[in-house]
From TrEMBL:
Pfam families: TetR_C_33, TetR_N. Residues 35-54 bind DNA. InterPro entries: Homeodomain-like_sf (IPR009057), HTH-type_TetR-like_transc_reg (IPR050109), HTH_TetR (IPR001647), MT1864/Rv1816-like_C (IPR025996), Tet_transcr_reg_TetR-rel_C_sf (IPR036271). Keywords: DNA-binding, Transcription, Transcription regulation. This is TetR/AcrR family transcriptional regulator. The keyword Membrane does not apply. PROSITE patterns: HTH_TETR_2 (PS50977). PANTHER family: HTH-TYPE TRANSCRIPTIONAL REGULATOR RUTR, TETR-FAMILY REGULATORY PROTEIN. The keyword Transcription applies. Residues 12-72 form the HTH tetR-type domain. Gene3D superfamilies: Tetracycline Repressor, domain 2.
């Protein structure tokens, strides 16, 4: 016997179900497919139900972004685990995880950055955002010269991989995983070889 919508979701799990439904819509149709009404229908609840958990569509996107950042970090961590453990190897692996996330979850990537663009990832807004950015910061740290603002190196790396990811999503280099499987990623990311590794600070 099939459960009724109000039996399927109750108390705290309705919010999670709506976020899950929103992510599914993003995966299938991109940002344009995400609406409160479609999200409620997907979750099997009344169209008014999201209003009890989110402050409009913007509130739903914020909740989806929090979950999206956790997934984003997981992709980068998995790539770090698979790759070389040298400083330069870790930096390139993190970029690979970034691109892999974008290629598989382009709709979520668009919600993560939203109208604020790259600035939405800088730590301060949420624990999930801070964690994702700190992974980038840690990978870049060995290449920050003494006395230099770390943000300069971080933005150099970030601009390279984020811009490349967006170009891939726009179909500039083929469909699906072509940028990874055909070696284009390795050729582009080789630009990071030009980053000089900073000398370790001597102990005093």
């Amino acid at each position: 016997m099939t459960s009724k919508p109000d039996q399927k979701h109750h108390h705290g799990n309705l919010r999670a179900a709506l976020v899950e439904a929103g992510i599914a819509l993003l995966e299938e149709g991109g940002v344009e497919a995400l609406t409160l009404r479609k999200c409620a229908a997907r979750a099997g609840v009344s169209h008014a139900a999201p209003a009890h958990h989110f402050d409009g569509l913007a509130g739903l996107k914020t909740a989806i972004a929090e979950e999206g950042f956790r997934l984003f970090s997981a992709f980068m961590l998995a790539a770090l685990d698979r790759g070389p453990k040298t400083p330069r190897g870790r930096l390139k692996s993190l970029c690979r995880g970034y691109l892999e996330f974008g290629l598989e979850h382009g709709g979520i990537l668009a919600v993560i950055f939203g109208e604020r663009g790259l600035g939405s990832l800088i730590p301060g807004s949420s624990r999930e955002q801070a964690h994702a950015y700190l992974l980038l910061r840690e990978a870049c740290a060995p290449f920050v010269p003494a006395g230099t603002n770390a943000l300069i190196v971080e933005v150099q790396v970030w601009s390279l991989i984020h811009g490349f990811t967006l170009l891939c999503l726009a179909g500039e280099f083929g469909d699906g995983r072509a940028p990874l499987d055909e070696g284009l990623f390795d050729q582009v990311i080789a630009l990071l070889d030009r980053l000089p590794q900073a000398s370790p600070v001597a102990n005093t």
